[in-house]
Amino acid sequence: METIFAENLRKLRESRGLTQSQLGKLIFVNRSTIARWENGSRMPDAAIITRLASHLGVEASVLLRMEAESETIPNIILVDRGREVLTRSLGVLEEVMPGAAITGFIQPQEAVDYAKANRVALALLEVELGMMTGFDLCKRLMEINPRTNVIFLTACADYALDAWESDACGFLLKPMTPEGIRKQMKRLRFPFSAGGEP
Length: 198
What we know:
The protein has helices at residues 2-15, 20-27, 31-39, 46-56, 60-63, 83-96, 108-117, 134-144, 160-164, 178-185; strands at 75-79, 101-105, 120-126, 149-154, 170-173. It is α/β, with parallel strands linked by helices. The chain has two domains: 2-63, 434 Repressor (Amino-terminal Domain); 75-185, 3-Layer(aba) Sandwich (Rossmann fold), CATH 3.40.50.2300. The protein has a five-stranded parallel β-sheet, sandwiched between helices.
């Protein structure tokens, strides 16, 4: 089943003239995640398959398959309202954690749905997300999996005190940098390995 999905995804992507990196940017995942889907070592969940189908111009049923979760590859999510910030930050995360499956979300509810279907090792959350704040989303994610590490992201240092009163284990001021992420990784409550330099 994974082999069929992998082959279909590769053919559809190539028929639209997209590289793995270009497709990744469209659906807010890193290039290595697309590569894993195409080599059959992983499969996306239904929510991400819907995104893929939309950008590849096919019905979701063409791509929809059972999720094949790998416990050895940590899932990292990044939630931010800004598309450009999200795309840039995904690149930073991929540099620091090349062995992780990194997925970006603009809508907090999509992140919640993803967390229900996948074990999330690390969630990086913008504080200001609209109707649902990053603090609200943190609480929802912790209800789903109390072992999820949460780091808040913001351009406003005034949120630092609120962040430390939550269940988060870190706080980063934007823009995100590799050095800032590496520093936060040393403070995780539930450490994991995702490749890259320490």
